[in-house]
Design goal:
The complex is a heterodimer of chains A (about 300) and B (about 300). Chain A is α/β, with parallel strands linked by helices and about 300 residues long. Chain A has 12 helices and 8 strands. Classes of the chains: A alpha/beta (about 300), B alpha/beta (about 300).
Chain lengths: ~300, ~300
């Protein structure tokens, strides 16, 4: 990780323009979807996927009670299934962090908070810093910030870089996830550029999307980001995490992401310290598939709590 | 100026032309996918000639169809009874315009022209019959129950949910139309297994459904072997009822025992001759409904001293 005080000077950091072969990326991502994963490996993968979920509620109508309910779900995904792992974290708005923190006390579940005027990020720097500090003060273990896509698309890379570095500084001990909102960036070249900037500026995780814009996470865009992480690791030996978010709502797709992760970054990343799924409905589908493996019959969501 | 050339007719149909055998795809969620398994079979007519290439559906096709049916359930059951009547009537209209195709398929599968014609007309009748019941069965079968106390007590019908329909083996069109219509008219969605040996009309009927304002997923048609698929249609926890319209008792027993796990309703709608025996009945609609009883407090009219 780059030290924040160094990072504040963008001019000293060289970020190359790397151009991405779009056709190759799409083809390669499609190939990860053709692996056949059965039986024990499937159950193992599904449990791992569950354990990587950031269970998320990011709505204007969120209330402490809603958050409380989600935190309960995070700890009791499906009690009828013995020894099921919990999710990795709950992800909420800063105003809900205090409630969430209280609810997951004594568990391994982390509290992640979005910040920097999520989801648009259209606010002055001072507001974004306050937003972040508030969430951290409330006890957030992780901060999910959004980059200023407008500035990025205008070519003001310094601004974007400095902004990430400042937020990183404000995070203190909290781990920082940087949301690129790839659905607004347009091309893979830009996704790669934004990934490189975020990594250089101190991101602990890079994350595809807010979940508020379509398209959200796709396999090709995630692959581009994974390759940015890989190249950084080869160059510096430092690991950065990855979080695809939005649109991953079924177990099969989650397993395909894990295949892609394993074959791109390797087994060191196959845990929730380095990989997360941002999702709200994925958990129930994974549970449904686990139940199918256990009982041998296709299940029904009627027997799983909604949230 | 270029010399004017006469265009010769080069395409002629020789007597020994190679026939193009249609590949019938399945119908799921409003789309026509091939089977997930990549398997096919060729049903034969009585002379041993292949009728078509049919998808040999697998358990994963059943799974996908149930997902589609479940997704369509709230929209379809939420439509007004009047609207469902209109849509069923629309199916009948579309059947009417494709009479010729159905007659041809029935003849390929061994019916005489007269039989085929009669069966298509009867199928249209069946659809119109059930369309008519859409906004009537509720009034006929629901009731206000006499209770002791100042309450209105209503019992009204609600659709059971997703229904596995094992369509008749002995009737390619009429039996199929009859069991589908009685299932969906009350707001259920259906996963239908078509006749194995006479499957042609099932997919052509799916083409009719796809062009008749029936929302995708309300009816899903799988082709294949009952022996392979019965287990999955009966054990699926997200299926709420099964309509079985075949003669094989052994498989029916298997279905009944597998249905126990989530207490699916199992109904036998078997008819040995669909053209001769009665099979149109509002009780077939009611078989796939659940009764909801509601208590509603009322003022005691008599006690207040006034009357109607």
């Amino acid at each position: 990780m780059t030290q924040p005080h160094e990072a504040l000077n963008f001019a000293t950091v060289k970020i190359k323009n790397i151009s991405i072969d779009q056709t190759a990326v799409v083809e390669k991502a499609a190939r990860f979807q053709k692996r056949s994963i059965k039986k024990e490996s499937k159950v193992w993968g599904l449990k791992l996927a569950l354990n990587m979920i950031d269970l998320t509620t990011l709505e204007g109508k969120d209330t402490p009670a809603k958050v409380k309910q989600m935190c309960y779900k995070a700890q009791h995904l499906h009690d009828a299934y013995p020894d099921l792992p919990t999710v990795a974290a709950v992800c909420v708005y800063p105003s809900m962090v205090g409630f969430a923190k209280n609810e997951v006390k004594g568990t391994n579940i982390k509290v992640a908070s979005v910040s920097t005027a999520f989801p648009a990020g259209q606010a002055p720097m001072s507001v974004k810093l306050d937003d972040t500090k508030f969430a951290v003060d409330q006890g957030a273990d992780e901060i999910d910030m959004v980059i200023s896509r407008g500035k990025f698309l205008q070519g003001e890379y310094n601004y974007v870089y400095d902004e990430i570095a400042k937020i990183k500084e404000a995070c203190g001990k909290a781990r920082l996830k940087v949301i690129l909102e790839t659905g607004e960036l347009g091309t893979f070249d830009k996704v790669r550029k934004a990934s490189d900037i975020a990594i250089q500026a101190g991101a602990d995780f890079i994350k595809t999307s807010t979940g508020k814009i379509k398209p959200a996470a796709t396999m090709p865009v995630t692959l581009v980001m994974l390759e940015a992480i890989r190249d950084h690791y080869y160059a510096t030996g430092k690991m950065v995490g990855m979080k695809p978010a939005g649109g991953i709502s079924n177990a099969k797709l989650a397993l395909q992401y894990l295949v892609m992760l394993n074959e791109t970054l390797g087994a060191d990343w196959m845990n929730n310290k380095w990989f997360r799924f941002g999702a709200s409905s994925l958990a129930n589908d994974v549970i449904l598939q686990l139940e199918k493996q256990r009982s041998g019959v296709y299940g029904s969501k009627d027997y799983i709590s909604i949230d | 100026m270029a010399e004017k050339k006469t265009i010769k007719k080069v395409v002629e149909t020789p007597d020994n032309r190679l026939e193009v055998l249609k590949t019938y795809k399945m119908y799921m969620g409003g789309k026509f996918p091939r089977t997930e398994s990549g398997r096919y079979y060729k049903p034969l007519n009585e002379q041993g000639k292949a009728l078509a290439n049919m998808c040999l559906g697998s358990r994963k096709d059943v799974r996908n169809a149930v997902v589609a049916a479940r997704a369509a359930f709230s929209g379809w059951s939420g439509k007004t009874a009047y609207n469902r009547a209109q849509i069923l009537y629309r199916i009948a209209e579309m059947l009417e315009t494709r009479k010729a195709q159905f007659i041809e398929e029935l003849m390929q599968q061994g019916s005489s022209k007269k039989q085929a014609n009669a069966e298509v007309l009867a199928s249209i009748e069946a659809m119109v019959y059930y369309a008519g019941w859409a906004d009537k069965y509720q009034q006929v079968f629901s009731g206000v129950n006499p209770v002791s106390g100042s309450y209105f007590n209503f019992s009204v019908y609600e659709p059971t949910g997703v229904v596995s329909v094992i369509a008749p083996e002995n009737s390619s069109l009429l039996g199929l139309v009859s069991v589908i219509a009685s299932t969906i008219v009350g707001g259920n969605t259906a996963v239908v297994l078509a006749s194995e040996n006479k499957p042609l009309c099932s997919i052509t009927f799916a083409e009719v459904l796809a062009t008749s304002d029936v929302p995708g997923g309300v009816v899903n048609v799988i082709t294949g072997k009952l022996k392979e698929l019965a287990e999955y249609m009966a054990s699926h926890m997200d299926v709420n009822a099964i309509v079985y319209a075949r003669a094989d008792k052994k498989i029916e027993d298997q279905i009944e025992s597998l249905s126990v796990k989530n207490l699916k309703r199992v109904h036998n709608f078997f008819v040995s001759d669909w053209m001769r025996e009665a099979h149109l009945s509002p009780y077939r609609i009611i078989d796939l409904q659940e009764v909801k009883t509601t208590w509603h407090p009322i003022e005691v009219i008599g006690a207040s001293g006034s009357g109607y």
